[in-house]
Amino acid sequence: MRLAALLLGKFDRAAELGVTLTIDPLSKLPETLAPGVLDALELAAGNLIENACEAASGLPDARVQVLIAADPEGLILEVRDTGNGVPPALLTSLTHRESAARAVGAAWGWPWCRNGWPHWAAR
């Protein structure tokens, strides 16, 4: 229920930024998740969707698509956007807290996904 509420809020945020947000029709989660997994998924999804919406905002045909699903190896969180991508100079340090591409104190999404919860981290 909380994940659904988060996604509804992200639809509103995307609309504010002029971005079309869609959920992949293949998205589906199991009925139960291990303790803490939903919290981690919500935090990662919220940060990554926000980053994607900001990256696509202001560009023609601004879109973000989200897939949240499970497979035998674990959870899948895929966020795709039509933004310009990560500047090459940031690729090697993207998941380090010090590499904020935005204002100081604003870049917790990627570092958290990579380093904050290592056993659930985006790889």
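(the above was protein one; protein two follows)
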Amino acid sequence: MKFSRLLNPNKLSGKHAHNWQRISAYYLLIYIPFLAAATLFQPSHTSLQDLLDTLMQPFYLLPNLLALILMLIHSWVGLRDILLDYTPLTNTPLWLAALHWLLIFIIFDLVVLIVMVMTPFESF
């Protein structure tokens, strides 16, 4: 798929993007109370290692990663719709390209963060 085809405003609109935004909104509607309840009923953590051990359990890790991915999708669709609706048509490809690169940098930072969390650390 060509890069210019991805930036074509006529190809970016539609029900598909709207469905992804709705799915992510419904999941986040369920996830935020789950996270609040799970945080309130957990014992207090005395160190960073205790907190990381708790967050690395599958009970927390899978919903957190799914929420993070769906938040990225939700924000991507929302920002893209704002750009398509409110920027001049001549500047839209430029802003969409900037948004695309911002998404790439965010994903790269998340991968680096996950690798850093997964590797054990001795001390600072």
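Reviewer note on protein two: The helical segments are 3-6, 9-12, 15-40, 48-55, 58-86, 92-118.
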